[in-house]
From TrEMBL:
Organism: Chryseobacterium salviniae
InterPro entries: DUF4956 (IPR032531)
Keyword line: Membrane, Transmembrane, Transmembrane helix
Protein name per Swiss-Prot or TrEMBL: DUF4956 domain-containing protein
Classification via Pfam families: DUF4956
Length: 234
């Protein structure tokens, strides 16, 4: 089969082209399946998985159509320059999977079958290894904790103890002063913002109740940051 798919032919046959496109589809599907089993689910997951496969097959076809023609390549650059891609990909991990798909498209498009297979298998194995490593994004939820304290708040040690009990880590990353208003008659109030990582994902309600029980604390908010940086308030 490798002899059949060598790139020394200036005009590959229809059968060769069909085999390459099918191979590209299979390798892209493997990457998409790896993404599905190693990624936290969200409403856009299925759309992104389909896009991965589509991009791989389309990029393979484009590279095959260009071939060794400089004129075709320049024409493609001009055509792409007129297209504005405004999709905002917030998660760098998703960009890595898109680059893997483009790698498959280019490798298959130039009939680099061996490189495409080796690169795809290696990438998928690394992605699965990361899933079960300490760097996995699937094991804990990350939150932003925000609350308002009045000027008489004197329970710093209690807050620190609660965060140490419920969280793997906690970082105070912002502190704001709120001036007194008609609703706030006891002087200035303060807003605190923490990044926290829970020891157990279902501990959030317990932590919320403990903080609400403290005198001088109000307007408590938890903002869940999922893998795609979507933000949901509790």
């Amino acid at each position: 089969m490798l002899e059949l798919l060598k790139s020394n032919s200036s005009e590959p046959s229809i059968m060769n082209n069909l085999i390459i496109i099918i191979l590209s589809f299979c390798l892209c599907s493997l990457v998409a399946f790896t993404y599905e089993i190693t990624t936290q689910k969200n409403p856009d997951t299925n759309k992104f998985i389909q896009s991965l496969i589509f991009i791989g097959v389309v990029s393979t076809t484009i590279v095959m159509a260009i071939g060794d023609s400089l004129a075709r390549g320049l024409g493609l650059m001009g055509a792409l320059a007129m297209i504005r891609f405004r999709t905002n990909i917030r998660n760098p991990r998703n960009i890595a999977f898109m680059f893997a798909i483009i790698m498959i498209g280019i490798s298959c498009g130039v009939f680099g079958v061996v490189m495409a297979i080796i690169g795809t298998v290696t990438f998928c194995i690394i992605a699965v290894i990361f899933k079960y490593s300490p760097l996995s994004t699937l094991k804990v939820a990350e939150y932003q904790l925000q609350f308002t304290q009045n000027s008489t708040f004197r329970q710093e040690k209690e807050i620190a103890l609660l965060l140490e009990t419920y969280c793997k880590y906690n970082v105070l990353f912002d502190f704001k002063t709120l001036k007194a208003t008609g609703e706030t008659s006891n002087g200035n109030s303060f807003e605190r913002y923490y990044w926290i990582e829970l020891r157990k994902e279902n501990d959030i309600m317990g932590l919320m109740k403990e903080i609400e029980a403290l005198d001088g604390v109000e307007d408590i908010k938890f903002r869940f940051i999922n893998e795609n940086q979507n933000q949901n308030y509790l």
